[in-house]
Design a protein that fits this description.
By secondary structure, the chain is of the alpha+beta class. It is built from 23 helices and 9 strands. It has 3 domains: 139 residues, CBS-domain (Roll), CATH 3.10.580; 214 residues, Orthogonal Bundle (Citrate Synthase, domain 1); 99 residues, Cytochrome p450-Terp, domain 2 (Orthogonal Bundle). The strands form 3 sheets. A 4-stranded mixed beta sheet has the order 1-2-3-4. Strands 7-8-9 form a 3-stranded antiparallel beta sheet. Strand 2 and strand 3 form a beta hairpin. It binds acetyl coenzyme *A.
Length: 516
């Protein structure tokens, strides 16, 4: 019997019919259909003990009748749909309705801990989902989509409560400690870490793509003049768009995975060259061509600074780059996937990702975190400065994270890198970190605010001679590998991403006023 109906119903448990009418695989179609008729239900859940193993619906019976087979001599197991889609009893009604409505099922077994506890019909879900007041629906899909699962991915994941994240099956921090950027790039694109021979092949393959294509090169000087101040990330946004046109990137919908991956390699390889070229042109310096012998990170510093970097600096930046390649369904990754879901070309999706990353709430904080260090100035000033700032309602840059409610593992790793580099700022940064975490816990209790990746990223990059205006662009140069990995995954199993919004404006239709 259904428990509750109407606007008070929130979860599937509230509206399911329980217990569900069941049959076993060994029963005949005649027995099962007789029971459906008696109990006036449109389906029976086929069980093994209390575990659902199939479902037999009226639709199956119609198909069966058309086959002309004998219902008393045919087993349920032959006509049921095995391993049916199920729903958990604590699932919100509107949420269950949204995700199940597209699948075309009419009856869904409700399963708790592997055991059948009831059955719910799509019609009931729809009725309740639609009559719930707007506020309730809005509450079930949290603002900012926090915690809402919108896709399945093989690329990586963040476990915010544990302070752990991974790329494919590997701990991302361990990858940053043990492997090169090219290795991790290979892992992201192909799903496995390369052998030495594979690494060499991969490096050879991407090397020519580091060069800015001839058609785009002469446009760089003008792009580098745009904006006062010039924002390198905005320049990169334009450059990637130009690249897509110059290299005739075709809609992802029209090309196979090899062509799309080829596009992805071209973009990832040229981004560091774009950034350093734009930066140097804007500074009135000659751009420096990629160094054929240097690996990705060392080459990036070389093209920016004009000198071959020390191995310590190259490795520190490489570790930072590896640690920021991917990070779950962050705003820019989601943006890139949404754009790809329309079938647009790869440059369009990367350009969108760059746009999302440019916001201070996402990628724009490392230079601001360093600005904060300057503003605090001394260890003694940390407490009063931080306290005044939080009391004023300001956000401390480099603190807080949507997913991490404990230490950000990237921040811990980068603190270690900063200590290894022995930068003068590290001691002050550690003092600010300790003080800020304490003050935030006191003034913002329960919010669980700790340093995020950007706090020590600024210190590491500063120590390696990366200028502040290049911090977020450097972040973009590794994240583009993550975006394009997601673009490849999205395109491989695509469905247009097109959610809905709850209309909460004035009730329509209002008469349209005429102007006389
Ligand atoms: N300083 C002070 N208070 C903070 C901070 C902060 N850095 N971050 C969050 N809070 C407080 C908010 O004021 C809010 O308090 P309230 O409940 O009194 O209103 C509460 O914590 C929750 O904040 P939200 O904005 O809901 O948290 P959300 O998950 O949306 O924000 C974000 C995450 C945007 C990163 C936030 O912590 C922030 O603005 N940090 C500073 C900017 C920053 O460091 N950005 C880089 C992020 S890392 C990255 O993108 C790679």
């Amino acid at each position: 019997m259904a428990h509750t109906t109407g606007a008070t119903a929130r979860t599937v448990a509230d509206i399911m019919s329980s217990p569900a009418v069941t049959a076993t695989t060994a029963e005949t179609i005649a027995e099962a259909s007789g029971r459906m008729g008696e109990r006036r239900v449109g389906s029976v859940v086929v069980v093994d003990g209390d575990r659902p193993v199939g479902i037999l619906t009226e639709r199956d019976l119609v198909r069966f009748a058309a086959s002309g087979a004998d219902p008393s001599a045919t087993k349920v197991s032959e006509w049921m749909t095995a391993d049916p889609y199920t729903v958990a009893p604590d699932r919100a009604v509107s949420n269950a309705f949204q995700s199940l409505s597209e699948k075309g099922y009419r009856h869904i077994p409700v399963v708790d801990d592997g055991a059948l506890v009831g059955i719910v019909s799509m019609r009931d879900l729809m009725k309740i989902a639609q009559i719930q007041p707007a506020g309730r629906l809005a509450g079930e899909v949290p603002l900012g989509l926090e915690g809402v699962v919108v896709a399945e991915t093989h690329i990586g994941h963040v476990r915010g409560q544990e302070g752990f994240y991974h790329y494919r099956q590997y701990n991302a921090v361990e990858l940053a400690e043990k492997r090169t950027l090219e290795d991790v790039w290979h892992l992201m694109f192909y799903g496995d870490l390369p052998t030495i021979a594979e690494r060499e092949r991969f490096t050879e393959e991407v090397r020519p793509f580091r060069e800015i294509p001839e058609l785009v090169q002469p446009l760089m000087a003008n792009v580098a003049k745009l904006g006062d101040p010039f924002v390198p990330l905005n320049g990169l946004r334009s450059a990637v768009s130009l690249l897509g046109s110059a290299l005739d990137f075709r809609p992802s919908l029209d090309i196979d995975v090899d062509e799309l991956r080829h596009n992805a390699m071209q973009v990832c390889a040229v981004v560091p060259t774009f950034l350093t070229t734009l930066y140097r042109l804007n500074q009135g310096l000659e751009p420096i061509a990629p160094h054929p012998e240097l690996p990705y990170a060392a080459n990036y510093l070389y093209m920016m600074q004009g000198e071959i970097p020390t191995p310590e600096h190259a490795r520190a930046v490489e570790q930072y780059l590896i640690s920021t390649i991917d990070h779950g369904f962050n705003a820019s990754t989601f943006t890139a996937r949404v754009i790809t879901s329309t079938g647009a070309d790869l440059a369009a999706a990367v350009t969108g990702g760059i746009g999302a990353l440019s916001g201070p709430l996402h990628g724009g904080a490392p230079s601001r975190a360093l600005d904060m260090l300057d503003a605090v100035g001394t260890a003694e000033n940390a407490e009063p400065w931080i306290r005044a700032s939080v009391e004023r309602g300001d956000r401390l840059m480099g603190f807080g994270h949507r997913v991490y409610k404990t230490d950000d593992p990237r921040s811990i790793m980068l603190r270690g890198v900063a200590e290894r580099l022995g930068d003068g700022n590290v001691e002050l940064a550690k003092e600010i970190e300790t003080t800020a975490v304490r003050v935030l816990a006191e003034l913002k209790p329960g919010r669980k605010l700790y340093t995020n990746v950007e706090f020590y990223a600024g210190i590491v990059m500063d120590a390696c001679g990366v200028p502040r205006e290049m911090f977020t662009p450097t972040f973009a140069s590794s994240r583009v590998i993550g975006w394009t990995s997601h673009i490849l995954e999205q395109a491989a199993d695509n469905r247009l991403i097109r959610p809905s919004a709850e209309y909460v404006g004035a009730p329509p239709p209002q008469p349209v006023p005429t102007i006389d």
